Amino acid sequence: MCRREIAFYQKRQGAKAICWENVASADGAPPADDLCRDAALKRFHVRTPDGRLVSGGLAFAELWAAMPGFGPVGRVLRMRPFVWFLEIGYRAFLPIRPVLQRFFA
What we know:
Elements: H1 2-10, H2 37-42, E1 45-47, E2 53-55, H3 56-66, H4 71-77, H5 82-104
Antiparallel strand pairs: 1-2
């Protein structure tokens, strides 16, 4: 499911300006000094242009803010209180994600 979703974003305008890293297919090495592979596999992560590492709902808002077709929505959703609701939704989605992955496999 993640691969499909990321593939969707990678086909969008502006995606070439983003450095995409598939941690699942990595050789087991940590993706970054401040992020272990296990943590990277459990949540969606984005490094912002200023170097901050964010995850979960905020990571999606940052990704959307960086992409031309999603920019306005992303910029709004990364503000409080919207980002809190986005994170609540993201956390609610995590437990059902494995079921959905099996369904879509």
